[in-house]
Amino acid sequence: MLRTITLGSCVSVQGIVIAQLADGKIVVRVDEKNFVGYPVGAARVS
Length: 46
What we know:
This protein is an all-beta fold. The chain has no helices and 4 strands. It has one domain. This is Translation initiation factor 2.
């Protein structure tokens, strides 16, 4: 599953989900690197 996470206030990464951590963060893989961050919520359209 493809997910977007935030690494800081301005940096986002999109990749394949590898794991979900107990503190709410998820791990995504981009090429050969793993990144850990909080998932970005879905956009709301009204």
